[in-house]
Amino acid sequence: MTPLATTDTPLAEVLDDDLATRITTAFGHETVGELLHTLPRRYRQHGQRYDRRELVDGERVTIVGEVLSSSTREISSRTSKRRGELTTLTVEDGGTTFKVVFFYSRGIKFVLPVGTVAMFDGNVSWYGRSLQLKHPEFLVLRPVSGARGELRGSGNLAALARLSAELTAEGGPSLFDRPLLPIYPTKQGVTSWELLGAVVTVLRALVPVVDPLDPTVRAAAGLMDLDDALRKAHLPDTVAEKDAAGYRLRFDEAISLQILLGARRRFAARDPGPACPPVASGVRAELEARLPFTLTTGQREVLADITADLATDEPMNRLLQGEVGSGKTVVALLAMLQVVDTGRQCVLLAPTEVLATQHHRSLVAMLGDLGAAGRLGAAEQATRVVLLTGSMSTAARREALLDIVTGEAGIVVGTHAVIQDSVDFFDLGLVVVDEQHRFGVRQRDRLRGKGRDGLVPHLLVMTATPIPRTIAMTVFGDLEVSELAELPGGRRPISTSVVPARDKPRWLQRAWERVREEVEAGHRAYIVCSRIDADTGDEADAGPDDGVDLDGRPPLVAAVDLHAQLAAGPLAGLRVGLMHGRLPPEEKDAAMADFAAGELDVLVATTVIEVGVDVPEATVMVVMDADRFGVSQLHQLRGRVGRGGLPGLCLLVTTAPEGGRAMERLRAVAATTDGFALARLDLEQRREGDVLGDAQSGALSALRLLSVVDDGELIEIARRHAEEILDEDPGLDAHPALAERVARLAGDESSDYLFRS
Ligand code: ADP
Ligand code: MG
Asked: Which of 164, 251, 426, 634 could disulfide-pair with 407, CB 3.0 to 4.6 Å?
């Protein structure tokens, strides 16, 4: 019998050394509690039928069934000179037949002969009309003889065998006879069944867990007791039990996070910001009077909110969302000028150097003599716009820094990295962050300290990738959200088509003809590749075998190669340029400038052009291997065309097979230009961690179970309870268990403001 354990007990004290070590290596779990917070990926119900439509390529499945037939033949690989056996089994589960295939695995036919009942875990793929599992992990549940022999299958099964024997000796149900069989995520060779064994072992040792939530909160929110929830989440008897348990565990994460955010908000609200009320005859008023267009209603409304925010001494925290081309930049510029008019400075942060350079250029152009302070012909109230990037010469950089520290520069444009680390401002009043929804609390904290006399600068974050409300609330906690819904006059919607390059090679040819037609009509084209050259990280699905490639996808198109091919072939005679991240900054800038000036007709590039680049004459965007890009990335990319009142065309070229997930995603992108719909789709397809990135300052990445996409309602409820708890007990003195959880969530983040009233 294992010793008693709490959630803090190291796994090594409860589990076999080998198993504990492998779980720690694969998943990073050190303690019982961490293991228990890895919930099953799903639960398999006995005889449950499969919906064949849901079994899309790449879907991870675990099947339990009998081997109905088995065939083995010799194979060899031309490339690797490997020889061995190819064994194909048919296995039936819930009325669906799967082909289970093993390459070069000599002897499999003896481990899994016809009649064996086994569990298989792997990625499903469609091969013609049949479903395949290639090289699944497997566990023999009932060997052919019918006798209970030793456990056979993938993984180190010693611990599992021992546990099995124990359970049987106690007369309890066997490990795998459960109404809902938990299927765990597998990683680095730790199989689903090894994790199940580990979880069962741990739960048998676990003393009842103390609930950090008061019974009143539990009752009000309809929550299961924590100890129950931990057990039922892994070993439920009914679907309802499993759901209630999962809800409880997600609620715990939500409330800890909301308490953390609430505490941070309360702390931040104590520091004032610089009040910058509008000045009657300042630069802002002057530029507004001179604008070559009238602001849209949306722009005026957003601007009114921002104007009011900036006028108070409460630091603004505002997120401005708007489709690509909706005119966020001019709104930001007017906001910055309001601050400049009060004698303070602004900084505009861009995610890349190319973008910073372009912003600088267009701000200078828009301001004209209003931005020419210190030069001949400058307007009376003029300010100065300064660019600061990592690749500037030392002399230029020194001059820029001098302008910034003396306050000569009213507006500073640059990349995050450069400005956050090394710049002292004379009097920073407003930070504008462009196209960067990953700008999170940590980055914000870093800029807080850059204001004068301890004042916290106002913050405006702009993004073309809309963030659903719950996420904005979760990530930023206290961010106000503004939206620009309409596109300024004359802007035409972009039409998007998917080009299946493998199945319909003729279409790809047609795509190049379209590019040529556009160029001949006086327009320009972007062609985007997912990688620079053939040597750089090819992530194409590497099958388990190099000789028998069942997927047969061609390698990814590289920008350098495509540039050469197009210039010599389909686009011969056109001026085709090349731009990618490994070029020196001057060459990148030059390529971009040539394209903008019309010296180049076509620009073959990597995603360095992704955000914000503005060339009104560009009308076509061809994205190669479009399935390699995320949904919002594609949306951003196509926003680069159709900006000059000309209709835009975006062609998503892919070799992804018809009917698969990737293709489905591309078709969805082609079908809508609604950024919100796409943002949702994007989030559904990725893990939040990827989406939110470092916006979370560590805290969100510690959330294992909560989904900011699906748990919106739960998050709102948890937020209400969190506020109540903080109102009554700001120091969490009466909630030690909760305080501990929140502190753990905060991690290494400065906990200064946590619970110090
Ligand atoms: P984004 O929201 O993508 O940053 P921009 O601010 O770059 O959009 O605006 C795209 C283009 O639309 C720019 O050339 C800008 O000058 C122009 N623009 C902005 N507002 C208006 C408006 N109200 N009417 C006409 N053109 C506008
Ligand atoms: Mg922009």
From this structure: 426
Q: Which string of DSSP letters, residue by residue, matches 147-197?
A: S-----BSS--HHHHHHHHHHHHTT---TT--SEEEE---BTTB-HHHHHH
Distance CA(570)–CA(562), nearest Å, equals 11
Domain boundary among 157, 178, 210: 157
Q: State whether 109 and 69 are in the same domain.
A: yes
In this structure, the answer to whether residues 310 and 395 fall within a common structural domain is yes
Residue 318 included in any domain: yes
Which atom of ligand 1 is least distant from the CA of 614?
A: 7
637 CA from centroid of ligand 2 (Å): 12
Cα separations (Å) of 399 from 51, 175, 392, 423, 585?
Answer: 66, 71, 11, 12, 20
Question: Residue 91's domain is classified under what CATH number?
Answer: 2.40.50.140
pLDDT for position 523: 94
Residue 755 lies in a domain: no
For residue 139, which phi and psi values (nearest 5 degrees)? -140, 125
Ligand 1 neighbour 322 (Cβ under 6 A): yes
Does 536 lie in the same domain as 433? no
Among residues 451, 484, 517, the one where a domain terminates is: 484
Say which ligand is closest to the CA of 328: 1
Q: What is the dihedral of CA 320, 324, 326, 330, to 10 degrees?
A: 70
Q: How confident is the model at residue 147 (pLDDT cuts 50, 70, 90)?
A: very low
Whole-angstrom Cα distance, residue 208 to residue 564? Answer: 67
Q: Do 499 and 434 fall into the same domain?
A: no
Residue nearest to atom 10 of ligand 1 (CA): 325
Distance 325 CA to ligand 2 centre (A): 7
Mutate to test the pocket of ligand 1, among 331, 366, 433, 614 (most ligand atoms within 8 A of CB): 614
CB burial readout 29-39, b (16+ within 10 A) else e = bbbbbbbbbbb
Indicate whether 460 and 335 sit together in one domain. Answer: yes
For the segment 305-335, what is each residue's pLDDT rounded down to a tens digit? 999 999 999 999 888 988 777 889 999 999 9
Same domain, 478 and 501: no
R_g of the chain, CA atoms, integer Å: 30
CB of 489 closer than 6 angstroms to any ligand 1 atom: yes
Ligand 1 lined by 283 (C-beta under 6 Å) = no
Question: In terms of domains, do 450 and 305 share one?
Answer: yes
> What's the CA-to-centroid distance between 351 and ligand 1, angstroms?
19
For the Cβ of 136 lying below 6 angstroms from any atom of ligand 1, the answer is: no
Name the pTM for this structure.
Answer: 0.62
The protein residue whose alpha carbon is closest to atom 15 in ligand 1 is 327
CB-CB contact of 648 with 621 (8 Å):
yes
Cα-to-centroid distance, 494 and ligand 2 (Å): 17
| Strand pairing report for 83-93 and 428-434 | unpaired
CA-to-CA distance for 740 and 13, rounded, in angstroms?
23
Residue nearest to atom 23 of ligand 1 (CA): 295
- In degrees and rounded to multiples of 5, residue 145 shows phi and psi of -60, -20
Distance CA 135, CA 123 (A): 9
Q: What is the pLDDT of residue 123?
A: 87
Confirm whether 531 is domain-assigned.
yes
Domain of residue 516, residue span: 494-672
The reply to whether 265 falls in a domain is no
Judgement on whether residues 500 and 458 belong to the same structural domain of the protein:
no
Q: Using N-to-C axis directions, what is the helix angle for 239-268 and 226-234, rounded to 10°? A: 130
Give the whole-angstrom CA distance, residue 40 versus residue 191. Answer: 12
Q: How many domains are there within the chain?
A: 3
CA-wise closest residue to 66 among 112, 135, 117, 8: 117
**pLDDT, tens only, 30-86:** 999 999 988 998 888 877 777 776 677 777 888 888 999 999 998 887 777 778 889
- Work out the number of other CB atoms within 10 angstroms of the CB of residue 213: 22
Look up the CATH number of the domain holding residue 560.
3.40.50.300
Count Cβ neighbours within 10 Å for each residue of 293-310 and write b for 16 or more, e otherwise.
eebbebbeebbeebbebb
